[in-house]
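Good morning,

Both structures are done.
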Amino acid sequence: MLIGSGKPNPRQRGDLFYINYLPDAQFKLTAVLQTFFLAVNQLNSGDGCSLSDPSKRLMFATLNLKAGRRAIDLCDYNSALKLLESGMSLLPDDHWKSEYNLSLQMYRVAVDTACTLNNAAAVTKFSQEILTNVEAPLEKLHALFCVMKCLRTASKIQESQQLSYSILQQLGESLPRERGDSDLLAEIDSMRTKVLNMPDESIINMKESTRKEKDMLLLGLYSNLIVVMNDQNPKRMDDICLRMMEITVVNGLCALSPLSVALFALVLVSTGDIELAYRLGRLALRLTEKANGQRFLSEVAFFVGGCVSWVSEPLQSVAETNLLGYTNGQQVGDVLSALSNYQFYSLAIYLSGKNLKFCRDTSRKVSESLMQRHYLFLYKQAVVVYRQTAAFIGDVEGEEERPGNFPSWDDLMTHPERSANIDFSFYIQAHLYMRIFILTRDFTNLPNEGLLVRLTRKQTPMRPILWVGVFFEGLVSFHLARLLDDSDYYQQGEAALAFISKWRNSCNNKCNFENKYMVLEAMRLDLKDPDQAEDFYLKAVKSSKENRFVHEEGIASELSGDFYHRRGNIAKSYSFYRNAMECYGTWGANAVTQRLKEDVLEKFDSRQIIAQPIEKYISAVGYGEEPISTTRKRAE
């Protein structure tokens, strides 16, 4: 897995008045802090008689600010905000004139804390104070940046984009260009050449920026704008990533520089420069060990794990990177990045074939946490995984152990954001193809336009859920091409096969792509040259088995069973059907197992057939090149 070797932050979250429960190694520190916090708390809960002296009120306000900062260091943001608000209440009425510096510090820390807690009302209140009373332009823009983040987490994507554009223009930045712009392409290539020729240690040991405050604001703004553009206009993401890398290379390192490197790696994945992309992903994680970057490791791991490392690592390893990102985010109090990683982790373990009960329970925990924190833009995606896994298991909606207020599958299918949010629309479509092919086999509500066509048109950066979605689109298309004798569906299947083949060849990642390529090629040949299809069905089963994709071993085995049944080989057909049912059972997909069991009973009636171990059939098959076409065979 792509993860840095830096030591994890030992701080633990918890209530400030129970600090003595922290590890013994921190006892001396926490004993002093406990006394300090208890003293500040006692002052805040006094009767006010001791606070009639203005100088004492200012001293106590300063103590609350100090206590709030210490609380943030301990990742207790709720207590920090209460302490800061207590400090604000002690300031004089004319504090913006008489105590400007103290007021600015107090409100700056408060708006950051409220933003971390995703408390939109508090962010609005504190930022308005700053915008009205503060003179420094960067302080005003930082407050607006916090508002922009809250708009994004509330799924108010267009408002967030408009505000971010306004901030960029005030900072003298150009608005991002769309992919395809000739100057942009040349600049990306120039930056690619520059980092390609820089040894790893040269990147790690770049000079520190002399304008860190502005760089931090710009990089933070751009990193949030990346998420917004992924939902609204993915074609502008490349220019944003390039600009972040330019700021880092030209100005030097700041705490957010590792994120610049990670996001430029995302651009290189899109351009097909896989080796350099993976190298930069590793370097981004190493860079978090410098320049106080450890507190941003969670955000870096989110992008590296979910958008870069899959090019060279198995999905199981990608999941571990996101899990470590989740852990780090919890340790340093980066709640948004922690839960973003947790959501990616729950998706990755599901896509890699981990037991569905574990996946269902994990995605439910993620959904509940996101709903509790009001992170609406991530919440819907987490619920989709929960509903999908529950359906495969055979749970009945509304009868879960802990029902909650999650939207139903039908609600998600008709959610208004399917038309307003590009990324959510793609996400839903990918899961819909899976649900149709694995479980329902109900093709009546297929999207009018295929996922691959839409991804190509929008030029969305690739990540696992999207290429897995294209794989299932290919399965559905080839199945319907056979069922309906429809050439349009055949061409759609061929396009999906070409797409998977491209990534298989460019990534050289057999674990993620080999069995998917094999099964799609088998289905294609089954329609055009069935004599050559058998080896590819067997290769698909063998590859998925070796790479531990138990659910895809089930799919390949079921399709092999269909193939042998059509050719009248009853023994082989039944053997592969039995293996498919065992795989689905191991996966925990009881509803899928039941669907196949009913199909097998219908095909074989009550005939007594002895299933053979499939190893008997797949042991001798290798992974050769694509078969010689029928035309070439005739010519020879």
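Second structure follows.
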Amino acid sequence: TATRELEEECGNHMDIWFVGRRPIGYYKYEYPEGYIKDLVKYTGVKVFFMKAHIFSGQVRIDNKEIVDFAWVTKQEMENYVHPNFYNAIKDMLSEL
């Protein structure tokens, strides 16, 4: 679930409210050539986005999977991610 995944990546030190039960959108991509291993039967990923509000607390990232994070505006995010990814998700992002 979205709650479990968020807690795994960002810790469980935040008071969060998910707006609705359905994703607001998704991003789909194929694995790069050479990434797919013999045991993996999937060729790509579909990442679902949920709208949520953080009322209190702090992100405490899992350093095993995540190197760093930053709070950025929608406009600033364009400088942090690949252009194809940004173009695919920009309409899902809040203007706040």
